Each structure stands twice: as structure tokens, then as C-alpha cells.
Amino acid sequence: MNKGRRISQWAPWVAACTGITILTFAIPFILTLAAPNEMKWGLLSDISQTYGAVSIPLSGAALLGIAWSLILQARQLRIENADRSRSSLRELLLQSVEDPALLVCWEPPMYPMTREEYRRTAFLSAIYNGWRAEHANGMISDDILRYAAVRTMRGEAGRNHWKNTRAVWHTEASSSDRKFRRFVTIMDEALNIAEAEGPPVGLGDYFLPDQIRQEP
């Protein structure tokens, strides 16, 4: 019973192999019957070789197109994964800014500072990392990044944050890609421009004092 079942399972494969073998040996006779009487095998061979020569560059171009498409897809996948990772990290950072009790979950400050200063530092880190991601993805140009950074570094908090953390950014950029290194260079340029304009706007000078409206 099992032997008959095994034979029935192999029967389609045997029939297919037999059919292919017969077709292979029959192809020359089929071509002879299909071709006009005056057409010779040598001419058929020349035509076949001509089409073969034409198909080689076309096949090569198609293969290159497929390879380039796969490269672009892999690059896009890396960018999307990096964006998701940065977005998740930024979300955690902002949660810790909203809840100061979570600040101790991050690394200790690089220099003595108050809790409020550390919250500002964390928020500015989220801003600068957001700029880095947008610049890396081509969403903002060098000029727009420089303009935004100069405006931020006109303030005391933004300027001091980059001055205090630029060494860390440079260390990370030295082992990263060209885009990251370019980002750090532009941020340094923005710092130089902001410092050339004069002293920063102090934290207490951002806004006018809140006025209490007097009811008549």
C-alpha cells in the first residue's frame, strides 16, 4: 500500500522529466518544420546570436536597476529605523523633562547644576537631536540649520548648552558619517556667529515682567 502511494507521488515528477527530455530532443525537428524551406540552420544560428548579443546589455541594465533598487530600499530602511530609535529616545527625554523625578534615570550632569538647569539641558538636547535628524534626512538645508542654531544660541541657555556639550558631539561625530560631522561643523559656525554678535540674552531678560491687571 505504501509502495503504491510512493509511486503515485513520484509519477508527476517522472512524467515531467520524461516530457522535458522528449521536448529537448524534439526541438531541432520542430524548428526545422517551423522554419521556411529556404532558411538554413546557419542563418537561424546567426539570428539567435544577434538577439543574444542585444539581450546582454539589456539584461545587465535590468540587473543594475534591481541592485540599485535594493540598495535604496536598504538605505531607506536604515533611515526609518534610525528615526524610530531617535523618536523613542526623544519621547523618553521629554517625559523626564515633564516629570523631574525621572531625570535621575539619565546620566549625571557633566558639571554641577540645578534641577531646572538640567531640565533645560535635556530639552535643548532634544531640540538639537531633532535638528540633526532633519539635517541627516535632507529635510533642512545647511543654511536653514545654521540660521535656526544662530537664533537659538543668541540666548544664554542655547549657547551655553552647545559650548558645554560640543566636545561630546565632536567625539560622536568623529566615528559617524559625513552628515553628522557636517552637522557639528555647522553648529560650531552658528556658535561663532552668535558670539560675534555680542553677549547672549540672559534667562531673566527673555520676557517682560508679568503685569497684574488692576481691576478699576
Task: Write out key terms for the chains shown.
elongated; 6 helices; 0% strand; mainly alpha; disordered N terminus; 216 residues; 76% helix
Could you please describe the fold and organization of this structure?
With 216 residues, the chain is mainly α. The chain is built from 6 helices and no strands. The longest helix is centred in the N-terminal third of the chain and has 58 residues, at 41-98. It is elongated, with a radius of gyration of 35 Å. Mean pLDDT is 78; it is low at 1-9.
**How many DSSP-defined strands?**
0
Rounded average pLDDT: 78
Number of helices: 6
Which stretches are poorly predicted, pLDDT < 50 over at least 5 residues? 1-9
Summarize the structure in short.
The protein is an all-alpha fold. 76% of the residues lie in helices and 0% in strands. The chain has helices at 2-34, 41-98, 115-136, 142-153, 156-174, 178-197.
SSE topology:
Blueprint: H1 2-34, H2 41-98, H3 115-136, H4 142-153, H5 156-174, H6 178-197
